Amino acid sequence: MTIIGNEGELVKSKFIESFMKNIFLISATMSIVAIVLICIFIFAGGLPFIEEYGLLNFILGTEWKPSDTPASYGILPMILGSLILTLGAIILGVPVGVLTATYLAKFSNKKLYKFLKPCINLMAGIPSIVYGFFALTAIVPIIRALVGGTGMNIITGSILLGIMILPTIISLSEAAIRAVPNSYYEGSIALGASHERAILSLVLPAARSGILSSIILGIGRAIGETMAVVLVAGNQARMPAGLTKGVRTMTTNIVIEMAYAADAHREALIATAVILLVFILIINGTFLILKRRSGI
Amino acid sequence: MSKLVRYIIKISALITFGILFLIIAYILIRGIPSLKPSMFQWEYTSENVSLLPAMITTIMIVFLTLLIATPIGVFTGFYLVEYSKRDNKLIEIIRMATETLSGIPSIVYGLFGMLLFVIRLKFQYSLLAGTLTAAIMVLPLIIRATEEALLSVDNAYREASFALGAGKVTTIFRVVLPAAMPGILSGIILSIGRVIGETAALMFTLGTATGIPKGLFSSGRTLALHMYVLSTEGFHVNESYATGVILLILVLLINGLSTFLSNKLTKEN
User: Fold this and answer.
1) How many distinct structural domains can be found in chain B?
2) In this model, does residue A147 exceed pLDDT 50?
3) Separation between Cα atoms, residue A155 and residue B54, nearest integer Å
4) Which of A34, A212, A258, B213 has a CA that sits 20 to 30 A from residue A19's CA?
5) What is the pLDDT of residue B247?
6) Are the C-beta atoms of residues A151 and A244 closer than 8 Å to each other?
């Protein structure tokens, strides 16, 4: 501790103060540097290809045949694949997630909550490869028995992603539900509503923007997921042809072909990442705006 | 009506936690019998499919990643919380950058790491390229945890320290940091979990070589990558299960520790 005794020490402590402040400042700018570098490298790697091939040809092309001459690089099948799996995940994951959050915030007792809350964190911490492997060895055979084919299709992928977005949706929704002032609930009870009715018709609607932002974050997670999806979604690079057929997403397109791609093919994969990144930036932006509005 | 609602809510919770326990039980029950002593040999061969090299690589990459990301992340937290003034544009931008970073998919990190570290800086598939990529990826986690931990420290601590004549830096390191330590540690531990579970970001930066990396510029594979390669090849299902068990046990330990530490933080403050 610096007790200011003489001039020398005062100068020294002032120097340390401003030196460390600058170190902290430089560290803090690293996040900005990182995000800028990521955008520069991904965009610089992919935009020239998009410009040459034509943006519309690229994102609306329905054929992905990198080894044909001339090769075609249409990623509409992958964009649709990502969107369909994400939609499936939302349909399956959101109701279960929001209701589980309601349970945690309003129905569980303290003791149970102390056990269940860490379980949600654990769920978020399980590696995607473990989820993927579980889906591959446990869910795929069930779906295969039910609908035939390989069992690697839109249904399996949606179930897997629906499970994987649960922790994101639950933790944020729970925070949103808890942020609703207790007076809403109490007022409703005082007017004669039951516990369930008060929650359903007052608390949940009041938490809606927080719940919506949890769903948006869940969408971001689902679109970005790669290694689990690649194991169970079938990965056929063709237009989605039905719930029981396989699809390929933007992320899996990159991870499957990057290892051996060269030249234009490789640039086309980086360009796929550009489109993916644009999706993610839009989703993140929406999330940040909503989050500011809901104040959680 | 009320009863029905309550049932639906309870069933939803049951589904969520049921799935979690099902996954854990499934991997443990199928995986533990698959663990064999031969999987823990120093050298990987296609005979023994040893996971020990992958385990050591995982430890190396976790250690190196934290070495880089912890100081940067914690210092960023200091800056955001201890030096923030109202309406500071820079802080606003840093917050936005951090939140955007945390939403970027790992495959994009992987491609970026490949383009910058592996190709542009010519690191090849290496421990260094993997570490740098992973460090950027966990940065938002550490920043967030540090921020929250610092904010939970009572302002009276700071005021008392200032009143005794201590400067800002002394106050941060001697007074605020010790009080916020459990929270920061729990963030660091969560980052360990993130690195251990990461695949997409490391596949094109660290590579998937089977041996233990001989230096910073040598490739390797982490446990999660090992499991991914085995699952896609499909020849070594038992070994995949076994790797899954090890991964799951690590994640359970890490989450337990992190929960313990954050409970400690809330109790103390």
Assistant:
1) 1
2) yes
3) 33
4) A34
5) 95
6) no
Same-domain pairing of A97 and A208: yes
Q: Give the model confidence (pLDDT) of B56-74 as tens digits.
A: 999 999 999 999 999 999 9
How many domains, in total, are found in chain A? Answer: 2
Asked whether the ipTM of the predicted complex exceeds the cut of 0.90, the reply is yes
The Cα A244–Cα A149 span in angstroms is 8
Question: Which residues of chain B are modeled with pLDDT < 70?
Answer: 86-87, 268-269
Tell me if A273 and B140 make a contact (CB, 8 A cut-off): no
Give the whole-angstrom CA distance, residue B248 versus residue B222.
14
Do both A11 and A147 map to the same domain?
Answer: no
Q: Is A63 left (phi over 0), alpha (psi -120 to 50) or beta?
A: beta
- Domain extent for A191: 75-294
Q: Which residues in A lie closer than 8 A to residue B19 (C-beta atoms)?
A: 163, 166
Structural domain span for residue B242:
35-268
Residue A69 lies in a domain: no
pLDDT value at position B139? 96
Interface test with A, best of B74, B112, B232, B252 (most A CBs within 10 A): B112
Tell if the CB–CB gap between A2 and B72 is shorter than 8 Å.
no
Is B43 or A75 the better-scoring residue by pLDDT? A75
Whether A77 has its CB under 8 Å from any CB of chain B: the answer is no
Is A119 within 8 Å of B80 when comparing Cβ atoms?
no
Give me the percent of chain A exceeding a pLDDT of 70. Answer: 96
